[in-house]
Fold this protein.
Amino acid sequence: MTEQIVFFIFTIMVLGGGLGVVSTKNLYYAALFLSLSFSGMAGYFIMLNAGFLAAVQIIVYVGAIAILILFAIMLSRKVMTTNEPQTNKQNWLALIVTPLLYLTLIFLVVKVNWPVSSAAPALDVLTQMGAQFLGGYLIPFEVMSVLLLVALVGAIILARDVEKGRE
Amino acid sequence: MQNEFIFVGILTICAILLPVGGMGMSWMLRPHKPNKLKQTTYECGLETVGETWAQFKVSYYIYALIFVVFDVEAVFLFPWAVAYNKLPLYALAEVLIFVLILLFALVYAWRKGALEWI
């Protein structure tokens, strides 16, 4: 019963946040609604016994990605003050594509035979994860840092170019 | 539900109740007599200049990007830190390589002047 109430609260956060993103006219508020939706997702992860993923969701998505989106909005010209129309010429296309995407996802969830483990969830997930990172998954772990390096270098090059163009 | 997250839930509820309670109490207790001087925006005693929705500089965006990269790095280092006692010593070297590669990223950002406050 408690579980259902908690699930209900998180669902309100996720769906309400998502609805806020597409319905509010101010783009800044839309980004704040998006971070509310992200927080609700973290709640789902906790309910699925994935505490680390929940922490990652809060740290990376709510803490960093949402800030990035907010900064991008605050940088863009006139977006903050003017209330742009929420639809453009492609809205009929979106009307076709989004139900298709929804149906595809539902089809996948129902039809695919997802492997289910009968083993009990591990108690010290983090310790095992740390051991796996530096054991069997060492190469992906190191490649990850190279990926982050490339992402940072690319981001700086792109952002610097934008800055030069503005001057 | 896992029991250890009940404390997080209680903390969240407290974190919401504290400001809401404080503001709600003062809303109930205070007299409501607005005048023009009271409703002006207060900013360190100076008159405010321009719009509230000011446009930010691009350089702020670079800080945010650098923050995201090192945020993700911290996430990846966290499982290693938890498992530290159970890992052999060469794991430390592996993590040092991981940090070293990202140190290049920091040096690059530094050399390109992305860390400078403009």
Remarks:
- Chain B touches chain A through 51 residues (CB under 8 Å).
- The mean pLDDT of chain B is 83.
- Chain B has three helices and no strands.
- The CA atoms of residues 17 and 23 of chain B lie 10 Å apart.
